[in-house]
């Protein structure tokens, strides 16, 4: 069968396996400026996927350190005034050096402070923005929407038009997590259909998949949409496989990390479920 005739259902799993294999082969260095809640799960997610995390956030060392990283992840989850200049400095340096950086606008609709911070960060050209439905709607409209803090009060599909508009306005790939993870460049839209609902019951799973997106994009910057959908799908597959041994959120957290570490080609090829929307 010629590749252009190959069904989408088999093309995406192979792409996804290539991304995961490249992350494991190259072990990209991912700088994470992230909230205190997520640091542990985020670092362990990156390590179990084969990448190399570094939670380095001081403005005093960013000029020395950031030029050596393969990608940067910025997450505003526990934002405070003294951290914000470091986020801007690292994002600015990354953009100047042509390194991809990824934004997680945690609870962006919860305060004027968070909204203004994200709007400033958007000017520094993130390659990817990943949030839940409520976050992407608030950021796209630049408004303080009704919000449940860091959790979403919207389904991911409710944020589809907001995601497209945000992608068009910023030039970034925009991903909305949820039952279906939606990924768009403003024109193309794909959905990653993996994962289990209990992943929402573990804090910082969204933060961690954003860092995984940074790792996937770092190995193929020119295909950021494909990298983003693949990272979301791989994380979802790890959740599905982990779920078969889990009794609740705490044991799912452990088994999900183990599943991500042990994920093999056969499981990726049979389980990855990414389709055009
Ligand atoms: N109903 C669901 N079914 C399957 N997977 C889901 C569901 N809801 C969320 N997920 C998955 O859980 C992970 C976290 O997504 P979520 O939307 O909860 O992020 P978030 O709100 O930013 O989380 P956090 O702020 O705690 O990091 C993603 O990988 C997503 O695909
Ligand atoms: C619970 C929580 N509060 C601020 S950041 C964070 C982690 C999930 O986003
Ligand atoms: Mg979040």
UniProtKB/TrEMBL annotation:
<dbReference type="GO" id="GO:0036172">
    <property type="term" value="P:thiamine salvage"/>
</dbReference>
<protein>
    <recommendedName>
        <fullName>Hydroxyethylthiazole kinase</fullName>
        <ecNumber>2.7.1.50</ecNumber>
    </recommendedName>
</protein>
<keyword id="KW-0547">Nucleotide-binding</keyword>
<dbReference type="InterPro" id="IPR029056">
    <property type="entry name" value="Ribokinase-like"/>
</dbReference>
<keyword id="KW-0479">Metal-binding</keyword>
<dbReference type="GO" id="GO:0005524">
    <property type="term" value="F:ATP binding"/>
</dbReference>
<keyword id="KW-0784">Thiamine biosynthesis</keyword>
<keyword id="KW-0067">ATP-binding</keyword>
<dbReference type="Pfam" id="PF02110">
    <property type="entry name" value="HK"/>
</dbReference>
<dbReference type="GO" id="GO:0009229">
    <property type="term" value="P:thiamine diphosphate biosynthetic process"/>
</dbReference>
<comment type="pathway">
    <text>Cofactor biosynthesis; thiamine diphosphate biosynthesis; 4-methyl-5-(2-phosphoethyl)-thiazole from 5-(2-hydroxyethyl)-4-methylthiazole: step 1/1.</text>
</comment>
<keyword id="KW-0460">Magnesium</keyword>
<keyword id="KW-0808">Transferase</keyword>
<dbReference type="GO" id="GO:0004417">
    <property type="term" value="F:hydroxyethylthiazole kinase activity"/>
</dbReference>
<comment type="function">
    <text>Thiazole kinase involved in thiamine salvage pathway.</text>
</comment>
<dbReference type="InterPro" id="IPR000417">
    <property type="entry name" value="Hyethyz_kinase"/>
</dbReference>
<dbReference type="GO" id="GO:0000287">
    <property type="term" value="F:magnesium ion binding"/>
</dbReference>
<keyword id="KW-0418">Kinase</keyword>
<comment type="similarity">
    <text>Belongs to the Thz kinase family.</text>
</comment>
């Amino acid at each position: 069968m010629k590749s252009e005739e190959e069904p989408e259902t088999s093309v995406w799993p192979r792409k996804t396996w290539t991304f995961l294999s490249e992350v494991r082969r190259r072990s990209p260095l991912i700088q994470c400026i992230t909230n205190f809640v997520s640091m542990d799960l985020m670092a362990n997610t990156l390590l179990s996927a084969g990448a190399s995390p570094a939670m380095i956030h001081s403005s005093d060392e960013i000029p020395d350190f950031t030029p050596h990283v393969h990608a940067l992840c910025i997450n505003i989850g526990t934002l405070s005034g003294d951290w914000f200049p470091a986020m801007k400095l690292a994002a600015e340096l990354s953009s100047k050096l042509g390194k991809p950086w990824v934004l997680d606008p945690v609870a962006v609709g919860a305060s004027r402070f968070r909204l203004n911070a994200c709007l400033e960060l958007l000017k520094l050209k993130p390659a990817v923005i990943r949030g839940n439905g409520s976050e992407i709607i608030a950021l796209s409209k630049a408004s303080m929407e009704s919000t449940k803090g860091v959790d979403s009060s919207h389904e991911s599909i409710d944020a589809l038009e907001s995601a497209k508009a945000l992608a068009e306005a910023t030039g970034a790939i925009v991903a909305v997590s949820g039952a279906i993870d939606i990924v768009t460049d403003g024109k193309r839209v794909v959905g990653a259909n993996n994962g289990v609902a209990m992943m929402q019951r573990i804090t910082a799973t969204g933060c961690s998949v954003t860092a995984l997106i940074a790792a996937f994009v770092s190995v193929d910057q020119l295909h950021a949409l494909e990298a983003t959908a693949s990272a979301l799908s791989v994380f979802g597959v790890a959740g599905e496989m982990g779920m078969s041994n889990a009794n609740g959120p705490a044991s799912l957290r452990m088994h999900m990390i183990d599943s991500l570490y042990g994920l093999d080609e056969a499981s990726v090829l049979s389980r990855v479920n990414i389709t055009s929307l």
